Amino acid sequence: MKTKIQELKQKFNIELADVRDTKTLEELRLSFFSKKGYISALMKELGKVPAEQKKEFGQIINGFKQELSDRFDEARRELVEREEELAVNCAEAYDESMPTVNPGGSYHPITLIQRELEDIFRSMGFDVEDYNEIVDDYHCFEALNIPKFHPARDMQDTYYLDTPNQLLKSHTSAAQNHIMMKYGRALKEQNRPIRAVFPGRCFRNEAIDACHENTFFQMEGIMIDKDISISNLIYFMKTMLSEVFERDITVRLRPGFFPFVEPGFELDIQCLICGGDGCPSCKNSGWLELCPCGMIHPNVLKYGGINTEEEPYQYTGFAFGLGLTRLAMMKYGIKDIRVFNEADLNALSQFVSK
Ligand code: FA5
User: Fold this and answer.
1) For every residue of 220-236, which 3-state class applies, written as one string?
2) What is the structure's pLDDT at 258?
3) Predicted confidence band of residue 96 (pLDDT cuts 50, 70, 90)
4) Regarding beta strands 315-323 and 215-226, do their DSSP bridges make them parallel or antiparallel, or are they unpaired?
5) Ligand 1: which of 289, 300, 331 to mutate, most ligand atoms within 8 Å of CB?
């Protein structure tokens, strides 16, 4: 029994030396003092000791219990003191005005593709413009040859504000009139062609699926000068796509109706997710509507103060409305458009600037 107590004392000393906090200390205390602990086991053994030795061993066990108990109390006092001190020091060390330490952010894929396109168009002499997200009915529709109650409005149902006549822009074309007004004078007086792209967030009251969102990005572009034709339009579209994808992309141009262009086209690219076989990202068609475009309708030029008839200012122009979000899907192989707005950092932080 004496050897047993000696062994337990040694065990206690070794384990206590390793204790760093009150939680571990409590675990050690229970291993000795709980019903199934070492002290209970000793007391059971006491029952087997001959009667004449019971008193002596009983006193030894009690002395041992008392010693352990005192050492526990002392260790607990010291640990509690240390933990309190640590908490106070940490609180003092915390400075809420300091920037938070984070692992470093990354740009959203839309930001990356938008910047890439801005650089491409700047290198071709285009100005990059910004425009409001809240616009009025005139700029979003009427100045684009879409009068009230025109069926083309049905394709672009959007969100209307309580303030009369204010809505969230359903397409970047809403900025066309503003850009024409801004640069029209330089066109007329300095022969400076209007070449501008204007990226922006668009909103539509839309049923959401793998390739449709209610909030998405477009990049609009216009070019107005004398003798601008469809050849110019096709040249710029081709150059832009080959720069973005850095390889040959299969595209198709088909007629498309938009009241603000005449003639109008739909420029589709073969789906790069399925290679043209059909998948949810392209609604199983193998093609993705990417960039409607066309020659700007004379009415739209007129609303923008651009002369179309009077010699020598017979201006023409082209316009395109690139689906920036869909372009990002194709470029980065993102199968579902909803990824862009889900704020899932695991998915979004994979994209790095070139
Ligand atoms: C327009 O928005 C016209 N303003 C484009 C235009 C500009 C035509 C200039 C002619 C001249 P459309 O509704 O098709 O057209 O949208 C243009 C592109 O935006 C689509 O090809 C597609 O790539 C993208 N887009 C449209 N709706 C959504 C949506 N709900 N989610 C994601 N992308 C969309």
Assistant:
1) EEEEEEECCCHHHHHHH
2) 97
3) low
4) antiparallel
5) 289
Length of the chain: 354
Ligand 1 contact, 265 CB (< 6 A) = no
pLDDT digits (tens, 9 = 90+) for 140-198: 999 999 999 999 999 999 999 999 999 999 999 999 999 999 999 999 999 999 999 99
Left (φ > 0), alpha (ψ -120 to 50) or beta: where does 294 sit? left
CB of 202 closer than 8 Å to CB of 171: yes
Residue 263 pLDDT > 60: yes
Q: How far is the C-alpha of 346 from the C-alpha of 350, rounded, in Å?
A: 7
Q: What is the pLDDT of residue 308?
A: 87
Provide the residue ranges of all domains of the chain, joining segments of one domain with +.
2-89, 109-348
Longest CA–CA span in the chain (Å) reads: 131
CATH number, span 109-348: 3.30.930.10
CA distances from 136 to 151, 164, 177 (A): 18, 9, 12
Nearest protein CA to atom 3 of ligand 1, as residue: 321
CA angle 283, 287, 291 (to 5 degrees): 110
Q: Is 278 within 8 Å of 284 (Cβ atoms)? A: yes
Q: Is the pLDDT of residue 305 over 80?
A: yes
The residue whose CA is least distant from atom 2 of ligand 1 is: 171
pLDDT of residue 20: 86
Per-residue CA distances from 327 to 116, 218, 220, 224, 272 (Å): 12, 9, 13, 25, 10
